[in-house]
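Example S7 (structure tokens).
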């Protein structure tokens, strides 16, 4: 069994046991014991997409969903966190976004869940993202307070989005629809953009929801180091 898969399974188990602990069903989460350690995985440096690639992929999205990749690239959120954005968490006046939930697939259904590691955070709201979200809210009805919903007024299902919206957009601009070119590529783009703009690695780690700035630094490559 590959180490990355073991790490994911351990994280999922820890999340389930954490919920059981919160509900008083168990006395402790054994996955949090010092003796339980996830296998180490070599961290690969990711080559970020260029500005032109990002803009091209965004432009190929249907207008109804175009604000999703704009938010991912401009806020650095994970795909589930973008899908989980609530209108009340977007503070246009203070130009901040509160990340406090995500949409996960549980029991084969998209479900609201806490963010990764149950860690809430605030990230800056760029004008480009504020404009895209405002336009989204103006043109399409709001359901259950969510910024993004499906045509059927349900939570965004990443399986449908990836298959029918994201991958066709990649193919339209000549980007191979591989795992490395999933929506997480926009998160890497965000990190590289902020580094290029002079944001400190500590601040970037906070925006990305990383507890260890070293992890952030090991996984991000500035635009001037693409070769």
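Recovered sequence:
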């Amino acid at each position: 069994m590959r180490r990355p898969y073991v790490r994911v399974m351990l994280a999922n188990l820890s999340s389930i046991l954490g919920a059981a602990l919160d509900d008083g069903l168990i006395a402790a989460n054994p996955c949090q014991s010092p003796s339980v350690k996830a296998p180490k995985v070599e961290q690969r440096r990711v080559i970020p997409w260029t500005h032109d690639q990002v803009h091209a992929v965004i432009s190929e999205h249907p207008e109804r969903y175009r604000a999703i990749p704009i938010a991912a690239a401009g806020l650095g959120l994970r795909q589930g966190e973008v899908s989980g954005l609530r209108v009340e968490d977007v503070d246009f006046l203070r130009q901040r976004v509160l990340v406090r939930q995500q949409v996960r697939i549980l029991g084969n259904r998209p479900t609201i869940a806490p963010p990764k590691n149950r860690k809430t955070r605030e990230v800056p709201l760029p004008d480009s993202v504020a404009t895209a979200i405002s336009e989204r809210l103006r043109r399409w009805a709001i359901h259950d307070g969510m910024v993004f919903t499906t045509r059927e007024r349900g939570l965004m299902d990443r399986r449908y989005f990836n298959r029918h919206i994201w991958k066709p957009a990649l193919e339209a601009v000549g980007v191979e629809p591989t795992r490395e070119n999933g929506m997480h590529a926009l998160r890497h783009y965000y990190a590289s953009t902020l580094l290029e703009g002079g944001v400190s690695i500590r601040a970037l780690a906070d925006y990305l929801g990383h507890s260890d700035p070293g992890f952030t630094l090991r996984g991000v490559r500035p635009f001037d180091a693409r070769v």
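Notes on this example. The longest strand covers residues 102-106.
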